[in-house]
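== Fold encoding ==
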Amino acid sequence: MTDTAELFSQFTCVTEDMHGIAVEGQKADLPDEASKALAAHLTTGLQQAGSILEAIERNTDGKP
């Protein structure tokens, strides 16, 4: 089992990556295909973040 602190570190990495992708998507001249690819990367990041949060919840279940 992964340590809860490590899971929060992983969550931070994923969300920082998603922040960079979201900033990239704000370019005014971004082609539609690039926007589509960035959206797919964000979707993957959100799925990863959700999995990490579920693991944090599992790690802390039953703990005061």
